[in-house]
Amino acid sequence: MKFGIMVNEGPFNHQASDSAYQFAKAAIAKGHQVMRVFFYYDGVNNANRLSEPQSDDRNLVKLWGEMAKTHKVDLVVCVAAALRRGIKDELLAEGFHISGLGQLTEIGIAADRLLVFGD
Amino acid sequence: MLHTVNKSPFERNALDSCLRLAAPGSAILLIEDGVYAALKGTAQTAKVEAAAETHEVYVLGPDLKARGIEESRIIGGVKIVDYGGFVDLAVAKGTVNSWL
Amino acid sequence: MSEEPVFDTQGVVRKFMFVNRKAPYGTIYALEILESVLISAAFEQDISVAFLDDGVFQIKKGHDPKDLGMKNFSPTYRALGGYDIEKLYVEKESMEARGLGPDDFVVKVQVVPAAELSKLMAEQDVLITG
């Protein structure tokens, strides 16, 4: 099955990004496809390459990037939400790209299921 | 349909709204702080027990474990699933609604 | 930057419902979900918007956040019709619980009881909550 995922919170204040990542990992492990993760609201902070969690903590920015590379997951950061929050191309971690809000509607059409994780 | 609830019922109304709008027979999965709704012996227990009569109610095991909630404390009619089970529910139940 | 894949969406019409459950101004959710509603109109899908819980306050008449220094996005709800987004639902129970009536809204909506909104939700292919 093809999944789309929407992440509405940043990687630290709320568990939403972790839940989304764990869901995506489990879906891929079961042989499903995660077509795209769309980062909206403060979720755009998942793409910040300057984020430096403590060394004994998980690093979601990196984990997303690795998932994108290994499993061809499209990591889209919403341009409107990103610009507001100062997330620009030069700040993006590997695997992420900035695109329009239309990418959310598009994945809603193309995927069999769209799951939203947020607060 | 699959409904996910990620808020503690002691703090927010997400569970109440979900129960008001989730059609009978649909599945409800408690995740994140929503897992506190699955506890026996709380002010919310009767509501969740009643919901389990008309809906399939699930709770995410990794979120219980993280919060130190033993399986023995979970309401009888509530089934525990892992992330793989979450994926299976999303596949089997159709459209997913997140009660954020 | 990575390549952007293009997914085939030609000729597919799905039922989308945007579910608004949060009050405006206190958090940004109401404003940003409205932006996503507007963009979705370009895809010629079957779009509806539901207001329930504190989401009913999003379309309360008379918003004036000038003193907060914030943008008043209230007029945008009235513009939705111009984008052919005309299925706007308010859950009756949420509305009444908050002391509001059908005349309190800035835009024409259908007030539906929970049981009916429940059915409408169950018909959707995609539910977007913000």
Low-confidence stretches of chain B: none
What would you report as the Rg of chain A, rounded to the nearest angstrom? 13 Å
Oligomer classification: heterotrimer
CATH topology of chain B: Hypothetical Protein Ychn, Chain: A
The CATH superfamily of chain A turns out to be DsrEFH-like
Can you identify the CATH superfamily of chain B?
DsrEFH-like
Describe this protein's structure.
The complex is a heterotrimer of chains A (119), B (100) and C (130). By secondary structure, chain A is α/β, with parallel strands linked by helices. Helices cover 34% and strands 23% of the residues of chain A. In chain A, strand 2, helix 2 and strand 3 form a beta-alpha-beta unit. In chain A, helix 1 packs parallel to helix 2. The longest helix of chain A is centred in the first third of the chain and has 14 residues. The model of chain A has no long low-confidence stretch (mean pLDDT 98). Chain B has a single domain, classed as DsrEFH-like (Hypothetical Protein Ychn, Chain: A, 3-Layer(aba) Sandwich). Helix content of chain B is 35%, strand content 21%. In chain B, helix 2 links the parallel strand 2 and strand 3. The longest helix of chain B has 11 residues. The radius of gyration of chain B is 12 Å and the shape is globular. Chain C is of the alpha/beta class and 130 residues long. Chain C has a single domain, classed as Hypothetical Protein Ychn, Chain: A (3-Layer(aba) Sandwich), CATH 3.40.1260. Chain C contains four helices and five strands. Chain C has a five-stranded parallel β-sheet with strand order 4-3-2-1-5. In chain C, helix 3 links the parallel strand 3 and strand 4. Chain C is globular, with a radius of gyration of 16 Å. The two termini of chain C are 27 Å apart. The chains are: A alpha/beta (119), B alpha/beta (100), C alpha/beta (130). Chains in contact: A-B, A-C, B-C. At the A-C interface, strand 3, strand 4 and helix 4 of A face helix 1 and strand 5 of C.
Task: Provide the fold topology.
The complex is a heterotrimer of chains A (119), B (100) and C (130).
Chain A: E1 2-7, H1 16-29, E2 33-39, H2 60-71, E3 74-78, H3 79-84, E4 96-99, H4 102-110, E5 113-117
Parallel strand pairs in A: 1-2, 1-5, 2-3, 3-4
Chain B: E1 2-5, H1 14-21, E2 27-30, H2 45-54, E3 56-60, H3 61-66, E4 78-81, H4 83-93, E5 96-99
Parallel strand pairs in B: 1-2, 1-5, 2-3, 3-4
Chain C: E1 15-20, H1 29-40, E2 46-51, H2 74-79, E3 87-91, H3 92-97, E4 110-112, H4 114-122, E5 126-129
Parallel strand pairs in C: 1-2, 1-5, 2-3, 3-4
